[in-house]
């Protein structure tokens, strides 16, 4: 099953890279949904040796949320906000991809240095997880619309999930529930933020919030 | 122990009830005061039972906070500090029902009651906590409750300023305490007090405790928050802050020394030095003040200095194995804690009563209040005589104990004891004299003579809710002064708790001397009463004319002819001008028919102006230079977070 897990991790990395290079928000959301499915499969394959009904249900539930509910919510928010493209990101798509490659290199380095206990040691899980987190952070930092940033949070959380699902086999349920909860809260908060931004300021570009900052003496 | 917990619960319930009922001033007053008085009665019972020799089992309950446990214990030292905490708080709460009433129409009374009760509960928890985390939590609850009391009248600029100063000072102090407890905990392997031991660097721990607890106690030069914050609070809270809250700092210092074992000689020298400095500078700055409550606040610095002198002598006696010196110093210091709570509480309540009646704290706008507010005047006089250490009042008892210790030390053949002993004698004498001058000014200008303003002329005596607590405090001052043996019995268990080794029988010796002094003082009182009666008998059936106090032979005397607070203090402020740096603005009379002339003096705190002002301004400039980091874009903040995490990770791995 190791090759299957590796393949899934490669898929994860590829979706991350695609996310970094996409300008259309609808595509971002679709990719995030795809990543959710990929992670659901990862959850199944990791525990393939002793598959339990409970594990299957949990994987199915997390997939439903990651690939179903959240993308649907995001798509709705996108329609309501009427924003289909990322207008002008702080960091261009080509540069984002280059940075993404650098992040991938950094993640591999981290993976080689970080000593993880358990069966995950030496596997590509650590680099993939760290790269996913890095890509999510990069999306948050470099994109202008709140929706892209929500996707960024999602990708970040997916990275955390990847790490957790393959590292902590015994307490996986704990990790998983924690991650799901985080995710739900993040989306909830950001969703509220998106609607508020739309209602109050009539646009969803987060950077305009900077007019609220404390300008000081 | 359950009675103590009940006391805390009742205090908190009363506070919460007042908060819930804050729409009705009457209900808030009732619930808050009821909670405070009942809680203090419960807690006071516990303290008295322990001081009477009962052994209360400690309470240990687990607490989910890491390293923490809910470990409470009332030993004699705790009980001795609980006594003034609960005693003064109960009286201050009764007083507050009268004092806060006029505010009822303008602002909600729920918050001041809530924070008053929280402050009392916090202080009580501080002195019984036996776990460092619990102690720090209680410490912070107490400090923050005090902050909200200080900043209560927040519509006034100077009150906000005072609150801010206090908040900064208390947290800087807490930072030192945090370091202290972390180091102690590392040495002992646990954050329980019983596990604490000195380790390799007891000196560093002592200095951390001195700065951390000294900030709360108000040692010079850490006192700057005190003359700002105490006057700003409502008067019942000023009494609590000055009377008991600053004493928790002294408690902490004493408690820490008990962890550290036999103190080296230099601790005693440092304490004597700090005490002498705080005492002398505190009273000097008090003399130069024109604000009644600010003057009293500086006197707290002075009295904390006296207590530090006693602690220093006690520490020296401990070091050099001189049990009587140790016992006299420590007993004097501890008893002065109790005494200061009584008379400083009384004086602040008296000042509050003046403020309540005249709505001003400016000494130069008062005068002649002795005739208009006789009860407040007498109570204030008793407090003033007590704080200056005159027999037969309580201030004399504790200062005399410290004197006894200092005399023992001063006549020692060891230079390390003799020099601080002599220094303590000299500074105590100077402090006593200056304090007498200061209270001659405060009492004379405020209560004697003629009113200097319309507010003072229209002043009325405060109601019984305010007068009765003052009368009780004055009676307590007199009781300790007249029956010093009783006070020594109360303080003895606490001294035994701190000092190791066998009891050297210091108490009967001290009681014998003090009883004689009290007898002489009592005789003096009887003589004075007899003379007064004689005077009345002689004057009976003779016409007695009354006139204004100051008339200087003029036809139309004016209240402005009286000594003002500046002019009364002028000889002393001139003498110590180099320390005080009083600023004068004089418009001198000109020509044969001068139209106008004026003089105004102002004595700002030099430590605030020259030390902390520039230091904090430099910090603010440095912080402003970093303002570009705050760019206002969420993206960039996330970038900061991500970058710092990455750097940390790379640093850890690389």
Account of the 3D structure:
The complex is a heterodimer of chains A (217) and B (654). Chain A is mainly alpha-helical and 217 residues long. Chain A has helices at 2-21, 25-46, 53-81, 93-113, 125-142, 146-167, 172-201. In chain A, α3 (53-81) packs parallel to α7 and α5 packs antiparallel against α6 (146-167). The model of chain A has no long low-confidence stretch (mean pLDDT 76). Among the domains of chain B are: 262-533 and 563-586 and 598-604, no CATH class; 606-653. Chain B contains 24 helices and 4 strands. Chain B is mainly α and 654 residues long. Helices cover 72% and strands 3% of the residues of chain B. In chain B, the strands form 2 sheets. A two-stranded antiparallel sheet of chain B has the order 1-2. Chains A and B meet through α4 and α5 of A and α24 of B.
Strand order of the largest sheet of chain B: 1-2
Mean pLDDT of chain A, to the nearest integer, reads 76
As a whole number of angstroms, the C-alpha radius of gyration of chain A is: 18 Å
- Gyration radius over CA of chain B: 26 Å
N-C termini distance of chain B = 54 Å
* Global mean pLDDT of chain B: 91
Q: Kindly estimate the percentage of residues of chain A that lie in beta strands according to DSSP.
A: under 5%
The portion of residues forming beta strands of chain B comes to: under 5%
Oligomer: heterodimer
| Largest interface, Cβ cutoff 8 Å | A-B, 22 and 17 residues
């Amino acid at each position: 099953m190791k090759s299957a897990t590796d393949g899934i991790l490669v898929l994860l990395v590829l979706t991350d890279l695609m996310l970094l290079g996409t300008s259309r928000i609808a595509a971002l959301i679709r990719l995030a949904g795809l990543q959710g499915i990929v992670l659901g499969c990862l959850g199944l394959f990791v525990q393939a040796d002793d598959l339990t009904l409970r594990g299957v249900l949990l994987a199915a539930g997390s997939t439903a949320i990651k690939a179903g509910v959240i993308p649907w919510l995001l798509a709705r928010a996108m329609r309501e906000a009427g924003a289909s493209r990322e207008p002008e990101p702080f960091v261009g798509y080509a540069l984002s991809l280059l940075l993404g490659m650098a992040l991938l290199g950094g993640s591999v380095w981290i993976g080689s240095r970080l000593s993880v206990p358990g069966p995950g040691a030496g596997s590509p899980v650590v680099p993939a997880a760290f790269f996913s987190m890095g890509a999510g952070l990069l999306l948050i930092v470099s994109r202008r619309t709140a929706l892209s940033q929500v996707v960024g949070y999602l990708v970040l959380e997916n990275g955390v999930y990847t790490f957790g699902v393959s590292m902590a086999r015994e307490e996986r349920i704990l990790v998983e529930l924690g991650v799901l909860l985080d995710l739900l809260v993040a989306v909830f908060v950001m969703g509220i933020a998106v609607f508020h931004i739309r209602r109050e300021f009539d646009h969803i570009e987060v950077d305009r919030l900077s007019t609220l900052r404390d300008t000081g003496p | 122990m359950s009675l103590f917990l009940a006391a805390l619960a009742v205090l908190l319930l009363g506070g919460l009830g007042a908060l819930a009922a804050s729409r009705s001033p009457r209900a808030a007053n009732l619930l808050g005061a009821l909670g405070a008085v009942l809680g203090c009665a419960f807690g006071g019972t516990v303290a008295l039972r322990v001081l009477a020799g009962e052994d209360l089992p400690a309470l240990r309950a687990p607490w989910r906070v890491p390293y923490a446990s809910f470990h409470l214990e009332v030993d004699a030292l705790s009980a001795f500090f609980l006594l003034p905490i609960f005693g003064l708080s109960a009286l201050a709460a009764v007083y507050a029902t009268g004092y806060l009433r006029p505010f009822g129409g303008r602002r909600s009374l729920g918050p001041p009651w809530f924070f008053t009760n929280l402050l009392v509960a916090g202080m009580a928890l501080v002195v019984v906590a036996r776990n460092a985390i619990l102690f720090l939590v209680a410490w912070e609850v107490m400090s923050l409750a005090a902050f909200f009391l200080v900043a209560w009248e927040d519509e006034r600029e100077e009150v906000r300023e005072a609150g801010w100063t206090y908040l900064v000072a208390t947290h800087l102090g807490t930072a030192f305490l945090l370091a202290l407890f972390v180091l102690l905990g590392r040495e002992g392997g646990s954050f329980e007090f019983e596990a604490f031991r000195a380790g390799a660097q007891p000196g560093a721990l002592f200095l951390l405790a001195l700065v951390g607890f000294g900030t709360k106690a108000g040692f010079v030069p850490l006192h700057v928050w005190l003359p700002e914050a105490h006057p700003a609070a409502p008067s019942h809270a000023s009494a609590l802050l000055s009377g008991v809250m600053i004493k928790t700092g002294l408690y902490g210092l004493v408690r820490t020394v008990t962890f550290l074992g036999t103190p080296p000689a230099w601790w005693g020298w440092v304490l004597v030095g700090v005490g002498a400095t705080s005492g002398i500078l505190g009273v000097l700055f008090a003399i130069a003040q024109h604000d009644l409550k600010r003057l009293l606040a500086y006197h707290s610095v002075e009295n904390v200095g006296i207590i530090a002198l006693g602690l220093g002598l006690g520490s020296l006696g401990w070091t050099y194995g001189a049990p009587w010196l140790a016992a006299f110093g420590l007993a004097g210091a501890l008893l002065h804690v109790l005494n200061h709570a009584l008379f400083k509480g009384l004086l602040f309540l008296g000042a509050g009563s003046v403020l309540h009646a005249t709505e001003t704290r400016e000494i130069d706008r008062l005068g002649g209040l002795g005739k208009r507010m006789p009860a407040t005047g007498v109570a204030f006089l008793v407090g003033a005589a007590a704080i200056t250490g005159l027999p037969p009042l309580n201030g004399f008892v504790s200062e005399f104990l410290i004197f006894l210790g200092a005399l023992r030390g001063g006549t020692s053949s060891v230079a390390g004891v003799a020099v601080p002993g002599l220094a303590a004698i000299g500074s105590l004498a100077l402090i006593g004299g200056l304090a007498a001058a200061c209270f001659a000014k405060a009492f004379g200008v405020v209560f004697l003579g003629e009113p200097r303003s319309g507010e003072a002329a229209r002043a009325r005596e405060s109601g019984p809710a305010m007068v009765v607590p003052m009368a009780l405090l004055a009676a307590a001052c007199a009781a300790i002064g007249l029956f010093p043996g009783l006070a020594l019995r109360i303080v003895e268990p606490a001294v035994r708790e701190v000092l190791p080794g066998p009891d050297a029988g210091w108490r009967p010796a001290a009681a014998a001397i003090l009883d004689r002094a009290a007898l002489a003082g009592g005789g003096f009182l009887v003589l004075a009463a007899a003379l007064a009666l004689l005077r009345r008998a002689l004057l009976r059936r003779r016409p007695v004319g009354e006139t204004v106090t100051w008339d200087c032979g003029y036809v139309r005397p004016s209240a402005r002819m009286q000594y003002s607070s500046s002019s009364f203090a002028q000889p002393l402020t001139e003498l110590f001008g180099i320390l005080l740096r009083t600023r004068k603005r004089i418009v001198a009379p000109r020509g044969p028919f001068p139209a106008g002339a004026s003089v105004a003096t102002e004595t700002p705190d030099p430590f605030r102006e020259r030390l902390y002002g520039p230091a904090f301004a430099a910090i603010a400039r440095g912080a402003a230079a970093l303002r570009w980091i705050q760019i206002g874009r969420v993206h960039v903040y996330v970038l900061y977070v991500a970058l710092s995490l990455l750097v940390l990770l790379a640093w850890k791995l690389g």
